[in-house]
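At this stage, I put together a protein sequence along with its fold in token form, as given directly below:
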Amino acid sequence: MKQIHSTQNPLIKSLVLLQEKAKVRKQTGTFLIEGKREIELALKGGYVLENVLFVPEMFAISSIQKQIPSFCNPIEISKEVYQKLAYRDTTEGILAVAKAKDHDLNALQLPENPLILVAEAIEKPGNIGALLRTADAVGADAVLIANSKTDLYNPNCIRSSVGCLFTNTIAMSTTTEMITFLQQKKIAIYSATLQNANVYHENDFTQATALVVGTEATGLTSAWREAATQNIIIPMSGTIDSMNVSVAAAILLFEAKRQRGF
């Protein structure tokens, strides 16, 4: 088994850049996964691994070796190398390099009566991760990311999603293309906004539904408000007029799930 003990090893130096730079992830079409659960979820979600690196004193590779493709031989690394690569403070001592998926909207396959979460222009990777975690919890059929402002494979996005990046069906495109796609598929659009809205639970989410949320600072663009089957609002009794986007998405998604009988 190959062993790497130096942080100056060319492979390790390239992986440091992969962890830190969105540009490198885009150029190579690869990204780093950290942790056994996340790697197992990625494999279950159909992601292809290129390399697996582990610290033998921290992780028993035998516990996951059967799930690793035969062409992907694990590499032993030192704790020093691992600490150079690891994004999280406490993990099990295993990393993998995986190929990114193509999240083409036009390739998206949906069931007959889908429940979809749409998120427009979300900037913080942590919020994207939280939205993916929420979508997984409710069993949404797809998550559509419009006018993306962050790299989907940012390590903080993976961490905050607790691996749900790999369990969701995800598509990315522009707002204009996404609205056209939903309209062509006859999927009702419910845009969460303050303008011209009714209370969210007064609407019927039992049919093909897309629930659309935007940034906490500026909300949705006018295109979503104008294209909406109905604009919806979550009543609030406090002083401020907005909440965390993943919390808002959870309220809307679980109401739709409640209407559908869980």
Summary: Residues 245-259 form the longest helix (15 residues). The chain has a mean pLDDT of 96. The two ends are 48 Å apart (CA to CA). DSSP finds nine helices and twelve strands in the chain.
